[in-house]
Write a structure and sequence with these properties.
With 328 residues, the protein is α/β, with parallel strands linked by helices. It has a domain at 41-255: P-loop containing nucleotide triphosphate hydrolases (Rossmann fold, 3-Layer(aba) Sandwich). Helices cover 45% and strands 9% of the residues. Strands 2-3-1-4-5 form a five-stranded parallel β-sheet, with helices on both faces. Strand 2, helix 4 (105-108) and strand 3 form a beta-alpha-beta unit. The longest helix is centred in the C-terminal third of the chain and has 29 residues, at 299-327.
Length: 328
Amino acid sequence: MAGKKKQKGGKTKGKKAKSQRHQPIDIANVAAALHLGKDCDYDKELARLQIELVKLQEWIKHEKLRVVILFEGRDAAGKGGAIKRITESMNPRICRVVALGTPTEREKSQWYFQRYVPHLPAAGELILFDRSWYNRAGVERVMGFCTDADYQEFMHSCPDFELMLTRSGMRLIKYWFSVSDEEQERRFQERMDNPTKRWKISPMDLESRKHWGDYSRAKDEMFAVTDTKHAPWYVVNSEDKKSARLNVIRHLLSLIPYRDMTPESLKLPPLRKTDYVRPPMQNQNFIPVIYHKKIKEPKEKLKEPAAKAKEPKEKAKKPKETAKAGSA
């Protein structure tokens, strides 16, 4: 210890650097609201928050945490877009998305929560449910896909089921994406006009438009029972998709205390080649090359326009010279 330089407080320089790198990050500490395009750039802020998500991912892996996030809300409320921005920079072996389809006849005969249990996280995993067991309190209730007894049993059992999860040490986070009927109408119309988004509209979505009030009532009744202390609902204002994405990521980062476990930079070892002679490349089946790399123009050609731009100025000077010669 005598050979190491000490700083204030008696800590060594090396120890101080390490403690700084592993301090928890208070991402929720915001002095005032930020307006996109004025106070911050969406793409830059998203990139910054995604770096923080990677840090959170490494912390979950290091601490062997089990985290479950439910994404619920109106159709076209922006759930899928938020999930995509959260996961696109994360390790799919740690962070997984679960989006279950229509239950099979066998699953319909099971305990209702049974089809969701196998997808719950193990140690060091983060699971995002794109729709969840709350289908029973929403679409199944409104569209008549379950009996009244099934619905009542769900409302009675759900708080206890979620209490079991949280009591086991699992972290359960529930988001509800809220959007107005006017904005939902606009997004539906956009999907109808865009061939790349038309697949998002199902016959059930079209049928659900007749039951806007029923869905509102079902959501309010669901919140009254399942918005509990051990598993509260967090409502996301999704009128603006980009703002909603940033807000939900920032809120998520504020809920789980984490430290920066980013691995130290590594030195890339030199490539070790051997005398092994590989078979001819012609023996392999390559796909047709339709698109080629962009051709870069030579620097000399790029300078030509600048040279041509100077020519008119030189020509403009010549008449003056001839005029002077004539006057002389």
